[in-house]
Amino acid sequence: MATTYNTAERPSFVKRQYAFCAHIRDPQKHPHPDDVENRRMKIYRELFYNNVEGFIANTYPVLRRIIPDAHWHTIIRDYFANHLSHTPLFPEMPREFLKYLEHERTPHPNDPNFILELAHYEWVELALSILDERIDTKQIDPSGDLLTGVPVVSPLAWQFSYHYPVHKISPDFQPNEPDENQTHLVIYRDASDEVHFMVLNSVTARLLQLIQEDNNHTGNTLLAKIADELQHPQPEVVIKGGTQILNDLKNRRVLLGIAT
Fold it and tell me: Which residues contact 77 (CB under 8 A, 6 or more apart)?
């Protein structure tokens, strides 16, 4: 999307629109238009800001609860004043806020160390809940053998690794430092369109990663690869345990079956 500016050659009514909007976005920096009463502008200022702030607060409920009011509104004010959104769609606003945190926000001493990872985790929950994804069931055998066939990961199952245990963070639990080991999660939408998460150990995370990266190998082949990576003296033990993992993932609809 091209960026436009309030340049000198623009018609007067366009300049007025820019001035009007600039004041709404950042009233501390831009005075209200001379021909509009401040009490009238106050209605617009509060309406627009409260609408955006409320929407973001509802999307990031844990983040909102753990950040004190004054600092929260400082963050939202900065986002509202300075972020250039690339979509007018309300469902995309949470992603715009995440982009702001990722690429534009200057870290502040009062920001939680985990602010970006927690925001990402909360955004994923929303993104999966509204994702319009059609699954081609004709290319999947839901009853197929996950060991002898090629497992298929649901497009409604997303795997991430975080430095903080984001699924545990709350007003009562706010870690100051990242964990020694990463937290592996798969966030997924079930057959009832409910969003859940599953904590993965390193082996399960690696297995799911391999399935997603290489859709040409059977479950047995991938488990044998993991046993080799672990240098396990009894590969059959890894394969047996991995079989249970594969079935559990399928029962949760993280895996949909095997490719036909």
Answer: 26, 49
pLDDT by residue for the chain (260 residues), tens digit each?
A: 445 556 666 677 677 777 777 777 888 887 777 777 778 878 888 888 999 999 999 999 999 999 999 999 999 999 999 998 888 788 889 999 999 999 999 999 999 999 999 999 999 999 999 998 888 888 999 999 999 999 999 999 999 999 999 999 999 999 999 999 999 999 999 989 999 999 999 999 999 999 998 678 999 999 999 999 999 999 999 999 999 999 999 999 999 999 99
* Residue 105 and residue 146 in one domain: no
Same domain membership, residue 255 and residue 208: yes
CATH code of residue 90 = 1.10.150
Q: Which domain holds residue 220?
A: 137-259
Co-location of 253 and 156 in the same domain: yes
Cα-based distances in Å from 43 to 40, 102, 241: 5, 31, 62
What length does the chain have? 260
